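Let's practice the habit of predicting before peeking. Look at the sequence and jot down your guess about where helices and strands might fall. Then scroll down.
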Amino acid sequence: MSAQRPSGRRTRSIGAIFAWPLLIGMLSLVGLVIGLTGDGARDVIAWLLLGSTIVAIAIAILRARKPGHLSRENPTGKPTP
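Done guessing? Here is the structure:
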């Protein structure tokens, strides 16, 4: 469970904030290196690793459009009447 500030906003550690961007960056970097250093199966692996960025963006967009998602107007995440 995360700590709550008096304003109702959650506090997160630096590690929690940057964990996903670092993972996506590392997957992209590995995908680029693998794609540039080989052919055949390496190309397929490179495409999968580079495609993980697109998948992560799509998931973030879908989660942001979901009703009840945390927003500035509704910081608790509870549906408003």
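How did you do? The mean pLDDT is 83.
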